[in-house]
Predict the structure.
Amino acid sequence: MMHLLLVALGGAIGASARHLVNLASLRLLGPGFPWGTMAINVAGSLAMGLFIGLLGRRFGASEDLRLFVATGILGGFTTFSAFSLDFAVLWQRGALGGAALYAAGSVALSILALFAGLWLARAVG
């Protein structure tokens, strides 16, 4: 039961942060392209790489911390379900090039960011 509570608390924090980033993105860049979701996916992947890299290689942190941060906070923060919806909206609007750019950019940059996080975690240690 404690693990579920840790994931739920972390998820609330991550989802709240995601909402704030999306609001800021809409205010700064407008609704024409899902920049907020793309930034969240990339930043979340970088944070996951850093956290897992540091957790596994340096600190030997507890299962509780992994569940709270990786599953809870970062799971609530990253938005691949929202990514799928944003892609569908762009596609249905007829913005096929934008949809393709969004999908390829989100996936490629998120994977690269994860590797960057792992690299940074190794460089720190």
